[in-house]
Amino acid sequence: MTAAGKLDRRLRFEARQEIDNGHGSPMSGDWLLRFTVWGKRLFLRGGETVLAARLESRQPAILTIRDSKQAREITSDWRVVDTSDGRVYNIRENPKLSDDRAFLEMLVEAGVAT
Fold first, then answer.
1. Distance CA 53, CA 92 (A)
2. CA-CA distance, 33 to 81, in Å (whole number)?
3. Considering the entire predicted model, what is its pTM?
4. Can you say whether residue 100 is alpha, beta or left, with left for phi > 0 and alpha for psi between -120 and 50 degrees?
5. Segments forming the whole domain that contains residue 30
6. What is the pLDDT of residues 14-23, one digit of tens each?
7. How many domains is the chain partitioned into structurally?
8. Which helix (H) or strand (E) holds 50?
């Protein structure tokens, strides 16, 4: 169970703006702020794939935030900026409900192209 005091990171969730390319087709534009919430970051340790990622300067982690209507809009196309240290994370999987169903957890990775 995650206590409120453990949500110690300010996380800014951003999604790509979809713009018209001038020929009637949509294309990706700038990142737009969707919302900012408090969350928890847990770096993954151990495991062969985690160690391989670290050798490539990638840092996988699990982010936990409170479940809400707007948080359920998050998809793996979005990114997260940790405003505490400026680190940018790509969301690698759509958020899943925690065991107690009060929080959403998602696998993210820093150090990769967005």
1. 13
2. 10
3. 0.81
4. alpha
5. 7-110
6. 999 887 777 7
7. 1
8. helix 48-55
In a domain, 2, yes or no: no
| Cα angle: 37, vertex 32, 17; to 5 degrees | 140
- Which CATH number do you get for residue 38? 2.40.10.270
The label of the residue with tokens 């900026």 reads 81
Strands 96-97 and 59-66: unpaired
Instruction: Tell me the C-alpha distance between 78 and 96, whole Å.
Output: 15
- List of residues 6+ apart from 75 with CB closer than 8 A: 15, 91, 94
Between CA 48 and CA 52, with CA 50 as vertex, the angle to 5 degrees is 70
Q: First and final CA of the chain: distance in angstroms?
A: 31
51 found inside a domain: yes
Name residue, tokens 């209507």: 69
pLDDT digits (tens, 9 = 90+) for 36-79: 999 999 988 766 665 565 556 678 899 999 999 999 999 999 99
- State whether residue 49 is helix, strand or coil: helix
Amino acid code (one letter) for 44: L
